[in-house]
Amino acid sequence: MPRVVDIAHGRSGDKGDTCNVGLVAYDDEGYRLLCEQVTAQRVKEHFGSLVKGTVARYELPNIKALNFVLTGALDGGGTMSLRSDHLGKVMYAWLLRMEIDTGRAVRA
Amino acid sequence: MSKTVRLGAGMAFWGDSVQPAITMVEQGEIDYLCCDHLAELTMSILSKQRKKNPDFGYTRDILDLLRGALPTCAQKGIKIVTNCGGANPRACAEAIAGLARELGVTGLTIAVVTGDDIEAMIDDLMVEGVPFANMDTGQELAAVREQLTHACAYTGCEGIVEALGRGADIVVCGRVTDIALYLGPLIYEFGWSPDDWQRLGMATAVAHCIECGGQATGGLYAGGWKDMPDLENLGYPIAEFAEDGTAVITKTPGTGGRVDIGTVSEQLIYEILDPNNYLTADVTADFSQVALEEVGPDRVRITGATGKPRPETLKVNMGYRAGFIGETQFTYTWPDAYAKARRGLEFLKSRLERAGFKYEDELVEFVGQNSMWEDRVELIEGADLTEIVVRYAARCADATEARKVFTECVPLYNNGPAGVAGVGTRPPLKELFALWPCLVPREHITQSVDLVEV
């Protein structure tokens, strides 16, 4: 099954214990699929125990981008976190792994 | 011909390479070099340095940058606006003046913008009814009042505008916002009103795109890192502003990297919360309708942002001492790498327990497998790994406890399972400074500007 990485690129960073993950679709169809399938609820489930708080989603349609704001996502924040990725720099990569249903048959 | 103001982004953080800024003033056509040196944690470190030595407390990389860039800036009339002053802008300005004399640069006016450091005012302001409650948790400041290392307000651009109006060539600020470093020169040059929310909001979107330096020009680019040219010589971004606050984003000519819709849009969504309400000390910007257009090689026009009135409160960044992290790592090799690693970990934890180890929280990462993803990635018990790295870290209230982590790990070398390497030498303890985000009504904060002539 295709993943978000096939239709979008992304970047993530920190604000205290909040992590934001931005996705930018490569084209209009990709943006439509992001809006349709990468919901805040799915993102929350996808990150599971990595995100203790909430997930909110915002749209930037002219640049075909979605922004996800993940609270309680960095083990106490950049200055306190025990994680190797204490600044959330690679959190975007986990979202790029999320599977997408393009509605088309995928060749085996 | 309508006026264009060219602002270059010279630094993205304390410790960033200074070469892109030097190359920019030499090869680029800019009016201002804007340098952001401060991240959330930086003020804690700088305050600690100032308390040890009253001549320190600023980011000393500005001196490396200016050693390379100042003669060219003086010759071309490029002004420099920076928050490198950190916890000690006056000492920073004096050090810059000393460097200028050493380099033979004269006729220089250095402005010092202060007013962000509110540590000495906290108790008085609390009496006046400012609670400084934690914005995230709602907790009262009393919980950490005695452990505070610093308190500074994220201040706006008014001091920078004043400094430029008084003839400053270099403006040295403390904790002004990254965005203020850009809005200050624009308000001064275009004569915008400080409540021209539309223009300030638009310009804020542009500044946000370039203020992390190389992240707008191909650095950290997830959209196509393989074919990004000459990352080792990455050019930093330059914004050519029109009077309406829109701009063309480009980069230093003759450098590596690329500016296109992909690189700019990826940076536009970096470290933002609600794009409809991007809060700064000077304006509440709205990025939601930003549009990008490629208007030439390495040239992207940015339009569509708007603004609303600035918040009535300023964000305050306080830091407090919060213990230490003790950490260690070790590598186990084939055969049975994962099983041995698990046994090695059990060995470490058991020894720590016998040593009476006290910790607040701990984390185990299997580097190369799940160090970024915790339990999101399941490790397969019988997987035939050639090697695996275990990283163990714990948060402790005091240094003595944190040191035990490495001490109790070392015996793995000759008491644990075979096939271990990579414990290394004792790593420095990491002291923790927790952040206490809170608010202060803006009427309590006044910037002031002093000049130092060289």
Description:
The complex is a heterodimer of chains A (108) and B (454). Chain A has helices at 28-37, 40-47, 91-96, and strands at residues 8-15, 18-25, 55-60, 65-70. With 108 residues, chain A is α+β, with helices and mostly antiparallel strands. Chain A has one domain (4-96): Alpha-Beta Plaits, CATH 3.30.70. In chain A, strand 1 (8-15) and strand 2 (18-25) form a beta hairpin. Chain A is elongated, with a radius of gyration of 14 Å. The model of chain A has no long low-confidence stretch (mean pLDDT 94). Chain B folds into 2 domains: 5-116 and 154-311, no CATH class; 320-435, Alpha-Beta Plaits (2-Layer Sandwich), CATH 3.30.70. Helices cover 29% and strands 26% of the residues of chain B. Chain B starts with a strand and ends with a strand. Chains A and B meet through strand 1, strand 2, strand 3, strand 4 and helix 3 of A and helix 9, strand 14, strand 15, strand 16 and strand 18 of B.
Number of strands of chain A: 4
**Percent of sequence in beta strands of chain B:** 25-35%
Main sheet attributes: strand count, strand direction, barrel closure of chain A: 4 strands, antiparallel
Which regions of chain A have little confidence, pLDDT < 50, spanning 5+ residues?
none
Structural class from helices and strands of chain A?
alpha+beta
The CATH class label of chain A is Alpha Beta
Q: What's the gyration radius of chain A in Å?
A: 14 Å
